[in-house]
Specification:
This protein is an all-alpha fold. Helix content is about 80%, strand content about 0%. It has one domain.
């Protein structure tokens, strides 16, 4: 148990750098998310092959996992968009409403009773964000993107809870990365039309940031 807590805290510490990398990387949020998923998918596949942890998953299972990965991909897209339009602090704060959306959507999707306590406590996050929204108009676009990100994040959490009961964590991570990559690849032409990028290719610094942001956290958590 102690080892698990230590690993959890280290993973959270590493994951905390995600917002910092997102701000420092010069790619726009669409390309940043796409390269992040590409490097994660390839890295995880090679990693699992080397350590011999690949296991069979039927096509239906792959599609279910990939669907959750698509939700995760859009979550990242809007999360990094929030950071790009505002700053790291506001972008990370917009993670908070995930608990509220989870408290609302989980009972509807899973056909369970609502928890009044969860709804009440999680709604406080919306009150805090509404203060920021009202005080500084310059943050509004970023906050809206952050709220959308939280919605996708909540949906991902709900569906991921079902996946962990059927598949190993290694396969979930692997096929979610490929699912998210496929989803963003489909929307990327439209995204780049709406939000053109100065360059489609990342710099060396950007590549390092895209790799450090997700891969080492996922690989670490497997152990």
């Amino acid at each position: 148990m102690k080892k698990a807590y230590i690993k959890l805290h280290i993973a959270l510490l590493l994951a905390g750098f995600t917002g910092i990398f997102g701000r420092l990387i010069t790619l726009n949020e669409g390309l940043l998310s796409w390269y992040r998923l590409l490097i994660s998918a390839i890295g995880m596949f090679l990693f699992l092959v080397v350590i011999g942890r690949m296991s069979a998953v039927n096509n239906k299972g792959k599609l279910h996992i990939a669907g959750a990965g698509a939700l995760l991909g859009f979550h990242w897209l809007f999360f990094y968009g929030s950071i790009k339009y505002t700053n790291i602090s506001v972008g990370v704060v917009c993670f908070a409403p995930t608990s509220f959306f989870n408290a609302v959507m989980a009972p509807l999707i899973n056909k369970k009773k609502f928890s009044a306590a969860e709804l009440l406590l999680s709604s406080l996050t919306l009150f805090g964000i509404s203060l920021i929204f009202g005080l500084d108009a310059g943050y509004r676009n970023g906050i809206i993107l952050g709220i959308i990100s939280s919605t996708f994040g909540a949906l991902y959490t709900i569906y991921n809870e079902r996946l962990v009961q059927k598949f190993t964590s290694e396969m979930i991570i692997l096929y979610q990365m490929f699912g998210g990559l496929a989803a963003l690849t489909l929307v990327m032409p439209l995204f780049l039309t709406i939000s053109p990028a100065k360059s489609l290719l990342p710099s060396i610094t950007d590549l390092v940031g895209c790799w450090c942001s997700p891969c080492y956290v996922h690989c670490y958590c497997i152990f």
